[in-house]
Amino acid sequence: MEHVKRYHSLSLMVNNKELLVEGPITGSYLASLRFDEGLKAFRIPEQQHEALIEIADLPEGRIIIAREGDLVLGYVTFLHPDPLERWSQAQLPDLLELGAIEISHKVRAGGVGKKLLEVAFLDDAMEDYVIITTEYYWHWDLKGTGLDVWQYRKVMEKVMGSAGLSWMATDDPEICSHPANCLMTKIGKRVPPETVVAFDAMRFQNRFLY
Ligand SMILES: CC(C)(COP(=O)(O)OP(=O)(O)OC[C@H]1O[C@@H](n2cnc3c(N)ncnc32)[C@H](O)[C@@H]1OP(=O)(O)O)[C@@H](O)C(=O)NCCC(=O)NCCS
């Protein structure tokens, strides 16, 4: 499968900062930008910057960023699922996982998360993919936001729902291990039925239990 990436951008104002939201971008372009110290939810910022540069250059990898000048203040990633996860079992070339979305605390709750997804889905190529995101409450910044798990789940539903991702059932043990965890999915208009069947088979692997 050829992974077509078409660049789009939009701007928005948050907390008196004029942000440009753009992507998919290349690794070398991302390497030329500074990475905000507030982007530390998943790794220390320097390591996360490096990880995103690598993802940007993967054939299927897509990185959308929000930046003020040359300072990156938010990002979202799309790439094939980790080989250790069940979502990679069928090796579907047209399945992408929204792996991480993070906004610096300097510009949170100002619409940047939703804008990142808006720009990501401006590329019509996204209609060729099943897009999934696995939401685990232990990845959420509960401490930093002061939200409880259900309030945070609501924020995630609003962010993901703004781009058309919706809740889907699965018997994945990690997702089922807490009721606030969930799988959210968007199936592109041009995704062939064989991919949907293979995806459904990955979602449910313990049918004998029911
Ligand atoms: C989750 C996260 C990406 C949201 O990004 P954001 O830019 O703050 O989200 P948005 O401003 O687009 O907000 C989306 C909706 O949630 C609401 N919201 C966002 N933060 C909120 C908060 N702390 N309290 C209440 N509502 C909140 C917004 O008001 C908006 O609601 P609306 O659609 O009714 O207008 C951001 O909080 C973050 O980076 N968290 C740390 C990393 C993380 O947990 N990532 C998710 C797992 S990969």
From TrEMBL:
Q: Which residues form a coiled coil?
A: none
Q: Which Gene3D superfamilies match?
A: 3.40.630.30
| Biological processes annotated in GO | acetoin catabolic process
Note the InterPro entries from the entry.
AcuA, Acyl_CoA_acyltransferase
Give this protein's Gene Ontology molecular function annotations: acetoin dehydrogenase (NAD+) activity
- Could you tell me what this protein is called? Acetoin utilization protein AcuA
Q: Which organism is it from?
A: Brevibacillus brevis (strain 47 / JCM 6285 / NBRC 100599)
The opening ranks of the lineage are:
Bacteria, Bacillati, Bacillota, Bacilli, Bacillales
